[in-house]
Design a protein that fits this description.
Pfam family, one: GFO_IDH_MocA
CATH superfamily of the largest domain: Dihydrodipicolinate Reductase, domain 2
Organism: Vibrio hepatarius
Number of helices: 10
Protein name: Oxidoreductase
Largest sheet: 8 strands, mixed
Structural class: alpha/beta
CATH class of the largest domain: Alpha Beta
Radius of gyration: 20 Å
Strand order of the largest sheet: 8-9-10-7-11-12-13-14
CATH architecture of the largest domain: 2-Layer Sandwich
GO molecular function: nucleotide binding
């Protein structure tokens, strides 16, 4: 049984803990929050759990051997490296780091410390996403792809009212491409690998981060258009176009539904039933790596490519974070 701890007490932390416990591979043993009261409130439904509000003492604790990090993006790298240097395995929410340099440092620390580092990017581990990837060859030579995730942020009204939520704050390494845009970019890299070119445009907010944007990834013989936004909604599916047909995916982040349309034909639903908690599959994948104490090299490669592309996309669109300096 994996002794799990968490950093952060927001809704996504609760979703991951529930998913982890559902796999039968984990037990929640410790919770860190800047406020011990918040840690206690989060841990209440999970039974006897050690509570921490001091990160140094938390890292030294032998109550757990793996930690899930869901703090603001800017804290991912320093907290993960602190935990790994203390001998803890780390599953870190996407994006793993604010920039490519920090992501590389994280994997170097993981190797030096002999621990597993895993980016919590749920899409590739979902059964329907795996079906999407395995069916790419069935639609002939790929000629176009469109991957979209646009969702009006619940925190955007607060930003418009003059508040400064983390979601739109460069100090926390945030913005559209670093948040839901990651699902588009990460999915493209998982499906097609590293592109040969990248062109990015974005609509910047006064805070300095992107509220929305578009990216064109160039590959040999085709390109992939990414559409992302935290200031508007979209109801379009993502689509992979081949010479013999197309594959449509509803909700790329969770791989909700996969449809195949042969050229000149009608749509066929290829979807399989998935667990109600979309983080179930990434929690299982992390557990499998801990059993062998060996990180997944393919996941590492994808994470580093995405970190590289995120850094380049921000360079092109003019989004700068304090930790870039």
């Amino acid at each position: 049984m994996i002794k799990l701890a968490v950093i952060g007490t927001n809704w996504i932390t609760g979703q991951f803990v529930d998913a982890a416990l559902k796999t039968g591979e984990y037990e929640l043993c410790a919770v860190y929050s800047r406020s011990k009261e918040k840690a206690a409130e989060f841990a209440e439904k999970y039974g006897s759990v050690e509570l921490f509000d001091d990160l140094t003492q938390f890292a030294k604790s032998d109550a757990f051997d793996a930690v899930y990090i869901a703090s603001p993006n800017s804290l991912h790298a320093p907290q993960a490296m602190q935990m790994m240097k203390a001998g803890k395995h780390v599953v870190c929410e996407k994006p793993m780091a604010a920039n490519e340099t920090l992501a590389k440092q994280m994997y170097q620390v993981a190797e030096e410390s002999g621990v597993v580092l895993f980016e919590a990017f749920m899409s590739p581990h979902a059964p329907n996403f795996k079906l999407l990837k395995s069916n790419l060859g069935s639609i002939g030579k790929i000629r176009k792809a469109f991957i979209t995730y646009c969702q009006y942020s619940s925190r955007y009204p607060k930003y418009l009212a003059g508040e400064n939520p983390n979601t739109f704050n460069p100090d926390f390494a945030n913005g559209s491409i670093m948040d839901i845009g990651y699902y588009c970019l990460g999915s493209a890299v998982e499906l097609f690998g590293e592109p040969v070119s990248v062109k990015a445009e974005a609509q910047l907010l006064d805070s300095g981060v992107d509220g929305s944007g578009s990216v064109i990834l160039g590959y040999q013989g085709f390109d992939v258009v990414l559409q992302h936004s935290k200031t508007s909604d979209s109801y379009l599916p993502s689509e992979i176009q081949g010479e013999n047909g197309a594959l449509l995916m509803e909700m790329i982040s969770t791989a909700k539904k996969l449809t195949k349309i042969s050229r000149g034909g009608v749509g066929v639903d290829l979807s399989v039933k998935q667990d109600s908690n979309p983080m179930y599959y990434e929690a299982k994948a992390f557990a499998e790596q801990l059993k062998t104490n060996k990180l997944d090299e393919e996941c590492k490669t994808r994470s580093l490519i995405v970190a590289k592309l995120l850094t380049e996309i921000r360079r092109q669109t003019g989004v700068v974070f304090p930790m870039d300096v």
